[in-house]
UniProtKB/TrEMBL annotation:
CDD domains in the cross-refs: Cytochrom_C3
Top-level taxon in the UniProt lineage: Bacteria
Record InterPro entries: Multihaem_cyt_sf, Multiheme_Cytochr_ET
UniProt name for this protein: Cytochrome C
Xref: Gene3D superfamilies: Cytochrome C3 (3.90.10.10)
Keywords from the named record: Signal
Amino acid sequence: MKNLIVHIAIVVFSVTISYGQISPGDLSEAHKELEGMSNCTQCHELGEKVLDRKCLECHKEIQTLINKKEGLHGQVKVIKQDCFKCHSDHHGRKFDMIHLDEDSFNHEETGYELEGKHATVDCRECHMPDNIQNIEIKKKKHTFLGLDQECLACHDDFHQETLSADCVQCHDFKEFRPASNFNHNDAEFALKGKHKDLECIECHKETTRNGKEFQEFAGLAFEDCVSCHEDPHERKLPGDCKSCHKEDDFSLFFGGDTFNHNTTNFTLNGKHNEVDCFSCHKESDNPLLVFQDNLRTNENNCVKCHDDVHEGKFGLDCAKCHRETSFLSIKEIKNFDHSVTDYPLEGKHLQVDCKKCHKGRFTMAIDFSACNKCHDDYHQGEFAVNNISPDCIECHSLQEGFDYSLYTLDQHQETDFPLKGAHVATPCYACHVSEEKDRWTFRELGSKCVDCHNDIHENYISVTFYPKQDCTACHINDTWSSINSFDHSKTDWALEGKHQQVACRDCHFTESENNKNEIIQKFTNLETDCIACHDNVHENTFAINGVTDCVRCHVTTSWIPENFDHDTTNFSLEGKHTEVDCRACHTSTTVNGKEEIIYKLNKLECIDCHQ
């Protein structure tokens, strides 16, 4: 029991001594709520020093800065230090844990360098609750946390959201006025000329807005000079002032090259663009009168300013023919009325380009007394009489062109070669287009048939019947197949009977045995025997000494054997036999695939034919 009491006494003594070591002093005012042995482990680890982790579990705003690497606590050298190095405790309630020497503190260590006026400002003018946005941090007393680096976090927005919130685009840290960083050339309205010498206040008026001082920098109208300046022309002149004036001096006129005359009722084109303004307009110092003359001049009324070299003959609308690039330059004048000239256009002339006739200036006179004054004589003098060629209009028409001729058939009949027969239906080009020259020709064509046609009978027909290759000795103009009553009796073989009806080529033309398309002509040395032209259907039945003389039985008028005398045979016809048709006795049979009539019956007794 005694030992137990001693043991308890030792424990109580030990605890008393231990408490004195655990609590070296009172905590600061900020940490006073953590007094007592039960709260030690909120900051301390048993047997360990104070850990940064324990501090940051409570001071989350510091942890946020470390994570973002912002502010003083976000700097690398600060992150590497223990919190208690700068912020120790247990030094009493009134102990300032921050220990910040404001005079020697280097603000650059926070990541925000103090420049200009910022370097002379007392810390608490910036580090004050009104400038802190975070509500939790704002509750802390004498804190240096929670400030934003944006200007408007501390300063009022003088421009009241009419300009960018990035104040350093225009201002520096020395003073708000003037805005030394602002370059007016970067604005939508760059300053030029006299505008450079103006004070800002002349354009940007000071006023009151929302009960505060305000100066207008945005939303100013500057689309036209009259937005700021009075218009001395009282809007009598169109367009922007800068089209005539420069910002160096409004009293000077520079509009010759820059004024857009197309804004008026007179569009400048071509040479008009190069004319000095005062060539058309009177000079005047009165801004209400300058350029106000000629207001109602129609841009197509050229003679208002220019002399009419045509003396009104072609009307007053010069633009129909002329371009404004030059009066000598003529555009395509489709609408020009040529009928007002001495030579109205007709027919094919209506389709001809003007420059085909007007080689030089359009006002130069053209000799149009005859076609050959403009056109070459295609016929090369073929129709000339006494070296004078007739005018083209005697054969040609403006309506149809040179390919069409007015020359009639009746006129051709009066020439040295009147057309007859098939020649009447022959197209003109068949005779008058030379294949050799590839052109139309009408002279020295010749009048003989062989001058145009090939003589297919050359060397085949004797000159006796064909003198000087005169085709008309046999042929007529109607067709080549028609023969002009050739007197065959002049030959050695006069035509009789049916021979007079036979076409010449049936006897005188034969096909080549080797080539069906080749025709062989034969007019001389023709044989006169019938079998020379006709098939011998009787073969050798009536041959005498191997020769069959057809004329002993047949005549040329028909195949009927009118010359045959039955009495010359071994069986004379008498009585009723004279009335019997030959075919009743002379029947036909087939021999070697051919039908053959039997003429030699060798039956002379009655019983041979009659029962």
